[in-house]
Amino acid sequence: MRVSGKTSGVGASQSVGKTASASTHQAVSGTVSLGVGDALSVSSTASFITVVQARIAKLPDVREAKVEALRAQLESDDYHPDGEAVAEGLVRDYTPPRQDS
């Protein structure tokens, strides 16, 4: 194949159409037409991931009900966590797994 700087005829560069805007990218399974001769194919897995990401984005960063319940326990001096369980959880969560050779 030969590439040249010609503007018409054999070997000329051709425009592939307009690019998709942000609003064009939607969670769609199948093929979507983006413009003249352009198409976007999205798998069902990609669509599922997009839907899940949108739902996760709607979740609150803080579980307000849990925080309020713990706050009420603290204020009433009714919160007595097991120190051993807390320590074990911290060690488990923040210690990398051992790799024996």
Topology, pairings included?
Layout: E1 30-35, E2 38-42, H1 44-58, H2 64-75, H3 83-94
Antiparallel strand pairs: 1-2
Question: Can you summarize this structure?
Answer:
With 101 residues, the chain is an alpha+beta fold. Among the domains are: 26-59, no CATH class; 61-95, no CATH class. It has helices at residues 44-58, 64-75, 83-94, and strands at residues 30-35, 38-42.
Q: Can you tell me about this structure?
A:
This protein is α+β, with helices and mostly antiparallel strands and 101 residues long. Among the domains are: 26-59, no CATH class; 61-95, no CATH class. The chain has three helices and two strands. The radius of gyration is 28 Å and the shape is flat.
Key structural traits:
two-stranded antiparallel ribbon, 101 residues
Number of strands: 2
Distance between the termini: 54 Å
Q: What is the element string, with H for helices and E for strands?
A: EEHHH
- Structural class assignment: alpha+beta
User: What is the residue-mean pLDDT, rounded to a whole number?
Assistant: 75
How much strand? 5-15%
Biggest sheet overview: 2 strands, antiparallel
Radius of gyration: 28 Å
Give the strand order, joined by hyphens, for the main sheet. Answer: 1-2
| Residues in helices, as a percent range | 25-40%
Number of helices: 3
Regions with little confidence, pLDDT below 50 for 5+ residues = 6-29
Shape: flat
